[in-house]
């Protein structure tokens, strides 16, 4: 909007006689003026004045229609400026010999009135004549104004030409809107506020939210900022609606649009809703729709998260509206502190004693619903007459607060900022007097543009003991308070400070603080922490999987697979435990694996050891029996030396199983498989030699047979040595290339770390077993062919059964061994050794021992020949 700066001809002002008299095109109805050497201008945002569109068919004064609407709560902003000026003038320590005055106008929340008020501040006193020094001058030194977004922009467009310092105490415009170097912002940059909202949402785990934002340029910046801030931090939007400006001519369209938003909000699972608008009026109307009869849908409790600009404000027409709908709301508020004497100053206000205050009567009438006697009015039936005895503290908090609000605190600090900068200018040392005119302080020395050089570096502690200063961008470096709004049925409410965003904190951990126990939630939550998530959190032991077609905050909870765990809520992936740990049954933490091996201290180990000793003892008894009866025919038959060799090798086989039990050591790992393979190869070789001896002996009994020369001990010994030598060769190659060694198995058993002997070369291990199996199969085949030979001393039948048992054991050993894990593999091998050894011992020698001990009469040559 273009501002018309009215100029008078310089020649018309001669001999201090002002001849350029012109009428004020439209006088500002509300003004509060106090004279002083230097004037601080103020542009308030307390009143709203309805207008009809200006079609230039009537005088502008006639375009004002209807009554003023009062934002009663904002009257405190005016009083904060008045109070600060009063304190400074009464303080002899600051600005001695200089008195401050003020000139306060209202912007009426209108661009035209904002421009009008700004030009008025630059004009000659009581005349609308900017740019001329005719008559009494205002001596304007700075302007404090601009509560809402565009108001400071309009002010700056005028003041920027004169370099007059401007302090905004409310919503900060975008930097590209203000190019003036004399613009100072009492509110920290809004980006800090967005970061604080993110911290608040993440603290409570609110990742599924709704957003209502002004449908303005500032609302666009807010939406773009929160999208870039929220989404990377894991916060999703259930809905994002824009709040349009309400016009009287489109009231029904607006209400229908608000009804649509109301339904979206009430159906949403999001309980945390961020609202960003200049006033709370739209939200109040939105929540009042059910009581207006526009919707049967009941109002649900929500957590309203409000930005700095919003205050719990009530217009006259909203006096009966219940404010408990926003009970439990959280608001980022401008930091404020209690100021001594301010509350008493407010309570001393009286419309009959402060007639120069052009705001107090309108405020008083609408706040207390009374009227002042109007002269020359014939209306004697006033409903209620204002007496001046009304008390501000009796007003509901939504109408007016006697405690200093954040905006008022900023105005108070802005006035003191100007005063301290002026004081520095006044007491400037000679080294900086070059800024002034020759060191003499005249009216020119206090030109507003000169004050900017001192405002840039101003820093002081206010009466509340808090530091006030600006950063390089001329923005305040204070912070924000987090306020919990607690409302009561009598339309009063209480601000409860539950946290803060401290931009001056030393540690990053102290920037954002929240006291959760101090928060009062909406009654519908029964004082439990409200949830605002798309889906419930995945508990430890589960991981998240995104739901297709929905935002990333919506997911399924999948149990962790075997071997993995999740110790926190809402983990995207389950993780593996360290190698020496395993997950518990709930897969929510790791347990240290226990170290295990087949030992003598456990039942399985001691059982196998006892079996080995028993079989060894039985074998030793059989050897003793055979030694005692070595001269009997049954012992002498079928090569006595092979019998003793077989029995000794079986004894060693039983004893070698003890090498598999106990803590795996290097030497134990080297010899246990080799010794087992060698002694079993000797045993099977003896069985093979016995079988071949039986076959050759029978063939040698035939007349003219040439087999007699092969029958004897030499052949048997040769077979045993040759077959055993091959196994020795295999074992030697094994030890030379990849010998066994002690190892730790962390993976085969989920809950155990198994100490074991690594076989080194698995191929060589199976070569040893394979060769032993080959000898057994050959022995079984030869014995099977010789099982029916007519010989009373024929062992072929017994050898056939023993080899059948032996082969069955070791054929079942391979799949069982491969399917076993940990120490069970060792137990399977020990059991196979004992079982196969016991099969050979039982099938071959128990029948002979039975004859020797139980039927000695059969153990003689004559009896055996007779049976033959």
What does this structure look like?
By secondary structure, the chain is an alpha/beta fold. It folds into four domains: 10-53 and 60-187 and 405-469, 3-Layer(aba) Sandwich (Rossmann fold), CATH 3.40.50; 190-307 and 312-337 and 477-525, 3-Layer(aba) Sandwich (Rossmann fold); 542-578, no CATH class; 603-663 and 679-740 and 761-867, Rhopdopsin 7-helix transmembrane proteins (Up-down Bundle). It contains 20 helices and 29 strands. The longest helix is centred in the C-terminal third of the chain and has 35 residues, at 666-700. The radius of gyration is 52 Å and the shape is rod-shaped. Residues 1-23 and 434-440 have low confidence and may be disordered.
Give me a quick take on this structure.
With 868 residues, the chain is of the alpha/beta class.
Which class of the largest domain in CATH terms? Alpha Beta
The rough form would be described as rod-shaped
Number of helices: 20
By helix and strand content, what is the structural category?
alpha/beta
> In total, how many domains does the architecture comprise?
4
CATH H-tier superfamily of the largest domain: Response regulator
Our measurement of the CA-to-CA distance between the termini, rounded to an integer number of angstroms, reads: 137 Å
**Proportion of residues in helical segments:** 25-40%
Low-pLDDT stretches: 1-23, 434-440
- Strand order in space, largest sheet: 12-11-13-14-15-18-19-20
Percent range for β-strand residues: 5-15%
The CATH architecture of the largest domain comes to 3-Layer(aba) Sandwich
* CATH level 3 topology of the largest domain: Rossmann fold
- Please give the radius of gyration in angstroms: 52 Å
- If you average the pLDDT, what whole number results? 83
Largest beta-sheet characterization: 8 strands, mixed
By DSSP, the count of extended strands is 29
């Amino acid at each position: 909007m273009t501002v018309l700066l009215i100029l008078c001809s310089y020649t018309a002002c001669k001999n201090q006689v002002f001849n350029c008299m012109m009428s004020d095109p439209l006088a500002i109805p509300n003004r509060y003026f106090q004279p002083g050497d230097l004037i601080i201008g103020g542009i308030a945002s307390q009143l709203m004045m309805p207008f009809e569109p200006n079609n230039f068919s009537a005088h502008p004064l006639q375009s004002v229609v209807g009554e003023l609407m009062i934002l009663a709560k904002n009257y405190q902003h005016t009083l904060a400026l008045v109070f600060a000026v009063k304190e400074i003038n009464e303080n002899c320590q600051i600005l001695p010999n200089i008195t401050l005055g003020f000139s306060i106008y209202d912007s009426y929340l209108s661009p035209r009135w904002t421009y009008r008020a700004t030009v008025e501040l630059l004009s000659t006193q009581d005349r609308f004549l900017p740019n001329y020094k005719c008559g009494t001058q205002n001596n304007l030194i700075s302007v404090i104004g601009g509560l809402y977004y565009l108001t400071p922009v309009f002010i700056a467009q005028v003041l920027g030409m004169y370099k007059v310092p401007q302090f905004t105490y409310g919503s900060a415009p975008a930097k590209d809107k203000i190019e003036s170097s004399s613009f100072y912002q009492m509110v920290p940059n809004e980006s800090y506020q967005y970061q604080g909202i993110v911290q608040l949402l993440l603290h409570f785990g609110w990742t599924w939210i709704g957003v209502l934002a002004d449908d303005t340029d500032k609302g666009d910046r807010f939406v773009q900022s929160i999208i870039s801030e929220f989404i990377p931090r894991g916060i999703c939007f259930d809905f994002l609606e824009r709040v349009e400006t309400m016009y009287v001519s489109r009231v029904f369209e607006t209400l229908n649009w608000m009804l649509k938003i109301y339904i979206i909000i009430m159906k949403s699972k999001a309980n945390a809703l961020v609202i960003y608008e200049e006033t709370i009026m739209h939200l109040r109307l939105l929540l009042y729709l059910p009581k207006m009869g526009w919707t049967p849908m009941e109002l649900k409790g929500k957590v309203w998260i409000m930005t700095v600009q919003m205050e719990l404000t009530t217009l006259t027409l909203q006096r009966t509206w219940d404010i408990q709908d926003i009970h439990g709301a959280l608001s980022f508020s401008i930091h404020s502190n209690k100021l001594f004497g301010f509350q008493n100053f407010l309570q001393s206000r009286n419309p009959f004693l402060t007639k120069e205050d052009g705001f107090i009567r309108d405020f008083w009438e609408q706040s207390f619903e009374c009227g002042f006697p109007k002269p020359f009015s014939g209306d004697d039936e006033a409903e209620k007459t204002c007496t001046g005895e009304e008390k501000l503290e009796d007003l509901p908090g939504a109408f007016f607060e006697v405690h200093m609000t954040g905006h008022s605190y900023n105005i108070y600090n802005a006035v003191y900022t100007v005063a301290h900068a002026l004081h520095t200018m006044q007491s400037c040392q000679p080294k900086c007097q070059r800024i002034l005119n020759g060191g003499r302080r005249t009216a020119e020395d206090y030109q507003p543009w000169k004050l900017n050089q001192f405002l840039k570096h101003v820093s002081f502690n206010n009466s509340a003991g808090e530091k006030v200063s600006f950063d390089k961008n001329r923005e305040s470096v204070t912070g924000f308070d987090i306020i919990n709004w607690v409302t009561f049925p009598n339309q009063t409410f209480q601000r409860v400070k539950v946290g803060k965003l401290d931009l001056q904190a030393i540690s990053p951990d102290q920037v954002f603080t929240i006291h959760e126990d101090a928060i009062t939630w909406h009654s519908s939550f029964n004082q439990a922490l409200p949830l605002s998530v798309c889906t419930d959190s995945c508990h430890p032991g589960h991981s998240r999987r995104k739901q297709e077609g929905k935002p990333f905050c919506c997911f399924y909870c999948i149990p962790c697979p075997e071997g993995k765990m999740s110790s926190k809520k809402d983990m995207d992936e389950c993780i593996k435990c360290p190698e020496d740990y395993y997950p518990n049954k709930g897969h929510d933490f790791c347990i240290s694996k226990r170290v295990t091996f087949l030992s003598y201290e456990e039942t399985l180990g001691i059982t196998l050891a006892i079996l080995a000793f028993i079989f060894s003892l039985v074998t030793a008894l059989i050897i003793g029996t055979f030694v005692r009866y070595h001269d009997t025919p049954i012992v002498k038959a079928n090569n006595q030396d092979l019998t003793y060799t077989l029995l000794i090798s079986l004894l060693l086989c039983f004893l070698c199983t003890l090498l598999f039990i106990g803590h795996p050591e290097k030497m134990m790992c080297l010899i246990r498989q080799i010794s087992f393979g060698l002694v079993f190869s000797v045993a099977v070789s003896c069985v093979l030699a016995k079988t071949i001896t039986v076959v050759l002996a029978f063939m040698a009994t035939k007349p003219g047979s040439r087999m007699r020369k092969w029958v004897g001990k030499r052949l048997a010994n040769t077979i045993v040595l040759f077959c055993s030598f091959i196994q020795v060769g295999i074992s030697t190659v094994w030890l030379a290339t990849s010998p066994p060694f002690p190892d730790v198995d962390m993976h085969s058993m989920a809950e155990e770390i198994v100490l074991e002997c690594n076989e080194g070369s698995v191929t060589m291990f199976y070569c040893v077993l394979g060769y032993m199996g080959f000898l057994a199969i050959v022995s079984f085949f030869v014995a099977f062919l010789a099982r029916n030979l007519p010989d009373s001393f024929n062992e072929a039948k017994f050898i056939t059964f023993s080899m059948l048992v032996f082969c069955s054991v070791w054929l079942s050993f391979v799949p069982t061994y491969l399917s076993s894990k940990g120490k069970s593999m060792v137990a399977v091998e020990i059991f196979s050794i004992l079982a196969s050894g016991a099969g050979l011992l039982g099938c071959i020698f128990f029948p002979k021992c039975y004859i020797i001990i139980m039927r000695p009469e059969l153990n003689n040559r004559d009896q055996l020949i007779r049976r033959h």
